[in-house]
Amino acid sequence: MRKTLIALTVAGVMAGCSSSQEAVPEDPALESTDEKVSYGMGLVMGQRMSNDLPNLKMEQFLQGIQHGHAGDEEQTRMSREEIQEALMAYQTQLQEQESAQAEELAKKNQEAGEQFLAENAKRDGVKTTESGLQYEILEEGDGEKPTAEDRVQVHYTGELISGEVFDSSRERGEPVTFGLNQVIPGWTEGLQLMPEGSRAKLYIPAELAYGPGGNQRIGPNETLVFDVELLEINPE
């Protein structure tokens, strides 16, 4: 959103505005190259605006384009400074709205996660640690347990509590190797509870996962579920 607004500013939306009352035909011709390019540019800009400026006022927007293209500085309705101020105010308004929406979503996810974990803790085979991590051993291995300083090789599938898969080494067809002190706390703790060769489910509360910040594929305060196989400790 903000990048688009800045790009529009640089590209010339702020070039100026004047008063042109030329009517646009309902279905202008699309025969010449100039006509096709003009329509195509308008179509692309309109599609971008529908996403980036949902409250776009079409009458004012089209007048601004007409005035800017006319290039008559004397008839502009807003100065560049006024446009810049309006853009900054709009961006501030968007940031406040996005922040409020993120806080609301974080609260909703936190409450849903807590309810899920409370119910999940009642199931047979599910254990809860002091930190709040829940784990369930599906297949017991007979190897050693890793320490936080070890590297491990695993296969895993990560899901939201809705069941939506957001990441899976199994789908990629290749296990991953990493240091146990380089991942989220829920993984660091949970894998140390698993002997080599084990398969387990880790039910990780938000504070042991990505917290209120989330990441690109995980919302704020999401509780996560991982089906993990500990294949090897300190693989070559």
UniProtKB/TrEMBL annotation:
Class of enzymatic activity (EC top level): isomerase
Highest taxon in the source lineage: Bacteria
Protein name: Peptidyl-prolyl cis-trans isomerase
Domain PPIase FKBP-type: 149-234
Reactions catalysed according to its record: [protein]-peptidylproline (omega=180) = [protein]-peptidylproline (omega=0)
GO terms (BP aspect): protein folding
Listed EC numbers: 5.2.1.8
